[in-house]
Amino acid sequence: MNRRLLLSAAVAVAATVAGGYTLMGRKSQDAAAPADAGDPVAALKQMKLPDLAGASHSLDGWKGQPIVVNFWATWCAPCVKEMPALDALQKKYPNVRFVGFGVDTAANMQKFVEKVQVSYPLWVIGAGAIDTLRKLGNPSGGLPFTIVFNADGSINRKILGEVQPDDLDRTLAALKA
């Protein structure tokens, strides 16, 4: 069974890469960081990413608010496993903005949310995000990867791997809105 899951994940990654990093019918450079990407955190905040309906968003729209950004993929078992905990924490902390950045295709994500729904928004960053993850301090580009931002825009912490709900709860309780 584990071999089948690994093979499925590898096929999904390969299909996404072979598909030319398209999202919602556009090449991934539409969602790329601005030309001045010397600061990877600033570049992340300025990225314009589509939601599952195709509307464009950026983290800059949430200035002055604490934010939890969770990088995930439909084929990533730990990502899927942590989603209910993230959803519960989002409901517990309405002053904290949560968003899931899908390192996947919009089509895969749309099929996924028919089965697993969350109350926080999901934006499509696509498979090209691995380079972004590395620039943000995740050298392996592994998933899931979560970044907690303070209300002033600074990084409070980074979590590589599945979040531990009690640990993240303590972090969020200490954030100032």
Automatic annotation (TrEMBL):
Name the record gives this protein: Thiol-disulfide oxidoreductase ResA
Highest taxon listed in the record's lineage: Bacteria
PANTHER family: PROTEIN DIPZ, THIOL:DISULFIDE INTERCHANGE PROTEIN DSBE
Thioredoxin domain segment(s): 22-177
CDD domains reported in the protein's UniProt record: TlpA_like_family
Compartments where found: Cell envelope
Main location: other
InterPro entries attached to this UniProt entry: Redoxin (IPR013740), Thioredoxin-like_sf (IPR036249), Thioredoxin_CS (IPR017937), Thioredoxin_domain (IPR013766), Thioredoxin_ResA/DsbE_sf (IPR050553)
PROSITE patterns xref list: THIOREDOXIN_1, THIOREDOXIN_2
Keywords: Cytochrome c-type biogenesis, Redox-active center, Signal
Signal peptide extent: 1-20
Organism: Achromobacter mucicolens
